[in-house]
Amino acid sequence: MPTKKFSIRARFISFKFAFRGLGLLFREEHNSWIYLVFIAALIPAGIIFHLTAAEWMLITLCIGIVISAEIFNTIIERISDKIAPDYDPVIGKIKDLGAAAVLVLAIATAVVGLIIFLPKVL
Known about the structure:
The protein is an all-alpha fold. The chain is built from four helices and no strands. It has helices spanning 8-28, 30-48, 53-83, 89-121. The chain is flat. The N and C termini lie far apart (62 Å).
């Protein structure tokens, strides 16, 4: 089996595609704008309240997980729309489950944020 030759150029190209995907998410998915607003508020709040390294790590992981979940949900929605352009009750349930996954993670992230920031605010 032939092995692929390592190429730094190929790695940079793959990053280009990944960043293009992020651009698509934030340009075309309105829910992602809500995440950007929260991120824009969390960073200065973290600086003001002098978050510890562990707290920054938790916040960063939560942000990454929620945004990744939104990306996966968008993938599910777009593939579903391609497969079944007309309404299909099974596809509808699949899309609802994808949205529910993002909601659960967003709620868990909000709880983490409250656990970190509420004592500092009080």
